[in-house]
Amino acid sequence: MTAPTTSTTRWLDEDQQHSWRQLLRGSAKLFDDLNRDLEEQSGLSLSEYEVLVRLSEAEGRRMRMSVLADELVHSRSRLTHTIRRMEAAGLVERSSCPDDRRGVNCTLTPAGFARLEAVAPGHVESVRARLVDRISPAQLRQLGEIMATFIEDAPADEA
Residue 108: beta bridge partners? Predict the structure, then answer.
């Protein structure tokens, strides 16, 4: 008879597993619905909209591509594909960084800014209907606080 192997895996209990699956299903549904609403209203994906927002808030409406990728939590290759589509539509322009030839800047065009201004009210209404108005202000604050923990660096023993 062989001795049972010991596992160091800390399995999720029933309540933890339920909460984990609710997070997976709820976040997927929320972002799918928001993306669908945005595409139906404007022809923009949620990723494209977020690029427009980030650029509109940046100094000179310009950001280095690597910083933009980090801000959006996208891979650089995924962002490059998104920016290529947006550039073809005249919403953004890419240019070399003047202080670092290896770097690439992305700049919001006037047409891109106008598109954002036209689309933003509908998107905000969608966010309100699908999230903000469905939970209490305290729950929304708590959700923001919870999600902020995932933005911070992982503890040293998990990194």
Answer: 92
pTM of the model: 0.85
Element (H, E) at 43: none
Q: Are strands 92-97 and 62-64 parallel, antiparallel or unpaired?
A: unpaired
Q: Does domain 44-118 have CATH number 1.10.10.10?
A: yes
Q: Could you count the other beta carbons within 10 Å of the beta carbon of residue 15?
A: 8
Phi and psi dihedrals of 74, rounded to 5?
A: -120, 150
Does residue 78 carry a pLDDT above 50? Answer: yes
Contacts of 49 (CB under 8 A, 6+ apart): 38, 42, 116, 119, 123
Contact of 46 with 31, CB cutoff 8 Å: yes
Domain assignments of the chain as residue spans, ordered by start = 44-118
Question: Strands of 62-64's sheet, edge to edge?
Answer: 62-64, 100-108, 92-97
Residue that the structure tokens 């998990």 belong to: 158
135-149 pLDDT, tens digit each: 999 999 999 999 999
DSSP 8-class letter at 91:
S
Q: Would you mind telling me the total number of residues written for the chain in this entry?
A: 159
Bridge partners, residue 64, by sequence: 105
